[in-house]
Each structure stands twice: as C-alpha cells, then as structure tokens.
C-alpha cells in the first residue's frame, strides 16, 4: 500500500516528511521519493528500496524548505524503479504529485495527453495526473486539480504542489484514505495518521470527491465542483502501535478484514463496462498463444497451492482444459513432461518462493509458456514469467496468508473468464458469471460482521490438540487451507481431507476429543457430506459445520453451524474460507501465540 505525507508550515519540511514516511514503512513498499519547494524551484530525489536509501541521496539543499511531499510506493503499474517512484511531474517540472490508488482509465488519458504533446517518463498510471493538471492549469492550482480530477476514473489519494502556486499544498481523495493534520501555523497531509501523530492529534478525514487547499495558516475544503464543505476536526485517541494496524490487534486480523476491498481491487479495471467481458492487461500480448493452450500445470506452495487446486476445478469445469496442480518443490526435481501448448501457471503471493521460482525455470527450459499470479509487482517470479496477473491485494504483512488467498481465487476466476473470451466459449460467457464475482465483496463483509459467532466456537475448542477439516469438490482445498491456517498460527495439529477419504483411515481418529470442521455448503455433493457428518457424530466426534444460509436442516445434525451467503460453486471457497481464517486467528490469540510472526515460519520462503 502506498504511503503519503505532505507538509506546509513554518518549520523545516524535511524532518517532518522523513519521520512521517518512516511511520508508514509497515504498509510495505518498494521505492520512495520526496519533492520540496525551495526559493524558485522544486527539488526532488527518488530511490528504489528502503527509506534509508532515499535519505542517503537527500543532501543539505533540502534543508531550507518549509513545504513538500514524500511517498512510499507499492508498485501496481510498472516495476519498482526510480523512474516509476513518486513524486511524478508534468512536462514543465513545475507540478509534483504523489498518488495512492489505481487510475482505471489511465491508458485512455495517457494516449489523449500524448496526442496533446505531453511526454511521459514512467510506466505508472499515477503520472497522468500531473500532466492532466498541467493541461488544465490557468489561474490557480486548485482549479486545475478540480478540472483534471473530473476526467479521472478509479481510486486516488493525492498530495500536490506547484511552483506556479507555491504557497499551497493540495489534498484530494477518492477511494484512498487521505487525512489532513491541523497544527499551529502548519498543515499536514497523510494516508495514515501514524505519520503525523507526533506533531498533531487534530485531524480532518477527507471523504470521496473532496479537495483540501492548505496554506501555512488556512485550510479550505470543497468538492470537485468547488462547492464549499465544512469538515469536523477529530482528535486522535489511538496510540501509534494500534494505528499501524488501523486499530486491529494484529496485521493478520487487519488483512482478514481488508478482504472486501482487496477483492474489489482485484477486479478494478478488468471488466468491459457494458458486457462484463474480462480483459487482463498483463496477458494482452499473449492472447494468441493462450488461445491454443491444451494443458495447464499449476505450480505453487502452501496456501497458494490450495488456490491452485481451486483453479483446477474451476478451469476444468468451465473450460474443459486439462489442469494438474503440483507442489513446486516436487515439480522442479521430477523431470516433468511438458508438451507443446502447455502453460505453467505459478501462483505466489510474494513472488519470491524459491521452489516456485525454480519450478518455472525448469518449465521454461522445457518450452512451456509461463503465467504468474503474484501480489508483489517486480518480484522475481513476476519478472521471469512470460506474462502475468497481479492480485492488487496490497501488502500482506501477516505470515499467514489470508487476503492473498481469496484474491488469488478471484484472479483465477478472472483468468477463466478471460480464457473463455479469447477462446470464444459462449456457454461461459452467456451465463454472466462475472456478476457473481462482483457480489462477493459484500458477501464477505456479511460474514466478517458476524465474527462474534466464531469467537464463541473458538472459546470452546481452543484447548483441543487435534482437528480434522473435511470438504468435497471446491471445498476440499478449503478444508486443506482451514487446517493449514489453524496449525501454522495456533500450533494445534490439524489435517484437511476430502470428506470421502475419511473412511480410508482418518475415521479411526474420531472420538469426543476430535472436533471435525465440515465445509457443508449446499452444492451437488451436499448429501454425501451429510452422510460423512453422520459417520462422525455416531462415533462421538464434535462437528462444526460451515453451511449455506438457506439450509434450515443442518443445525439439528451438528454441534455448531456458521452460515455463509450463497454463490456459484466456483466462488464458494472465497466465502467458506473466511470463518476458518477467523477461527484459526481467534484460537491462536486465545492461546497467546505470536499470530503475525508464528514460530519457525517466514513470510516468504526464499530458500529451499
Ligand atoms: C500460508 O499461510 C503460508 N504463509 C505459506 O504456506 C505460503 O502460502 C507459502 O509459503 C507460499 O508463499 P507464496 O504464496 O509467497 O509463494
């Protein structure tokens, strides 16, 4: 997630900007940049990597300025390079902007501005905003900003300065958090109050379509039509630690609750407005090759491997292309058979998992086309693949993967619809599956709003030493994922199985001390799941069921039931995994485990 800090006042800007942006490092980033106005010029420095790299480049020339902007970039469009780092400038170099969000129509705007003679220096979507403001500049910076933003579609949090209107710092918000700090003879802009808490506790939260014009002594807020808006000044009550987690106790819980937004961001700009046909920019140049794919191999590890299993069911069910899912660590050493027209899909949140990286190198040597599904732009797997799709889920800090997993499922679904479009699969395109995906973020929120029901179940079972997770069809990989979540953060032993497999051994484990979680949503194999539940109950096992909200019979058959909204089978895993994420989280907290940094685990396994 990008971080923004802006300052205008009577103190030196540099220390305020540097200390502020360092407070936002936890959000994850891959490059940074600063611009200040001094005398009659804007001076700017940018760097790839940590803030300390930027500090090495900032010399005394920054010291005299009392206004400026600084930014940490989490790459979404364009790799993490100095050119792509913010701030971005217009052609004249007199307007500097920093941006958090995604500009959906940036391709259109960039082409229009280039036709008008604007020259771009970066691959980013953000840079179009600086040139758009320049194209509208007449008298005041704020008027140029208002006119420019009327052309923008997508999400933005912006801080803007200009040499042609030097005494002003402009903030503008649509879809990305932006806050104004009110000090004595000074004003601040930030994407997160953590950055300015040491200077002021008095803040104004901008709402969508609002612009704030800040000078040293004054703040004026309007909407994009220049209608004056009066804003309430709030006083921050939180301490710093809580703020970095946006008030959540752990990053993992924050990321579980970020899933509705992460899922929305995974879809942003990827549908044609009027017919829901899916376009994926990162696959555009490979459409001809992908049209002829006859076999798909998915390689991944851990949670990403579970997402791959769901992808196998999805693509085979809807496109009839044979898919197999392999542990990357096995694939890389077993001399796999790769035929012509084989695509290898690498799924990896970090994009740095050593086994997955080695697997795609092996596959590439054997002639496969490599498609990556990663969350980190500029990561090794993303860079080495022939084409790819980014999750846009924002940084995932908690070691246990949550929002990346559900975003992976959403992106694989988009890939299925994309392949259906380029391969002319009328059946898939006719039944408007895309609208089902658009409903998912709201349905996830409905589940998150009932977290207290999960807490009650967690309290009953937090001291158990073993768990079984059982599911069928699309919910079999969810059973594996639920078991992995529990064991990796609460250290309770848990196993996931296809429910029918229970009879082939695990049923020997069933007794009153073995709680069994069934993912029992109403699908074509629901009646089979009911028989499996009965087999557990007759042997004294405790049953916790995840069931569809229309199911009014299952509560009589199990010990606990948690209901989830209904959707198509292929998207059910996004909903059925949420209560399992929350169950694992709550039990780990009750067992006083280090939820964000579980023992023995790393966020990215970059070694074998
Ligand atoms: C999941 O909660 C774990 N942190 C782990 O299994 C993880 O999914 C696995 O290491 C793969 O990581 P990647 O997605 O970054 O490649």
Automatic annotation (TrEMBL):
Membrane-traversing stretches: none
PROSITE patterns, sorted: GATASE_TYPE_2, SIS
Domain Glutamine amidotransferase type-2 stretches: 2-217
Annotated organism of origin: Candidatus Scalindua rubra
Record's keyword terms, sorted: Aminotransferase, Cytoplasm, Glutamine amidotransferase, Repeat, Transferase
Lineage, uppermost ranks: Bacteria, Pseudomonadati, Planctomycetota, Candidatus Brocadiia, Candidatus Brocadiales
InterPro entries referenced in this protein's UniProt entry, alphabetically: GATase_2_dom, GFAT, GFAT_N, GlmS/AgaS_SIS, GlmS/FrlB_SIS, Ntn_hydrolases_N, SIS_dom, SIS_dom_sf
GO biological process entries: amino sugar biosynthetic process; carbohydrate metabolic process; fructose 6-phosphate metabolic process; protein N-linked glycosylation; UDP-N-acetylglucosamine metabolic process
GO cellular component, one term: cytosol
Coarse class of the protein's main subcellular location: cytoplasm
Subcellular location: Cytoplasm
rRNA-binding is among the record's keywords: no
GO MF annotations, alphabetized: carbohydrate derivative binding; glutamine-fructose-6-phosphate transaminase (isomerizing) activity
EC assignment: 2.6.1.16
Active-site residues from the entry: 2 (nucleophile), 603 (for fru-6p isomerization activity)
Name this polypeptide is given: Glutamine--fructose-6-phosphate aminotransferase [isomerizing]
Any Pfam family the entry gives: SIS
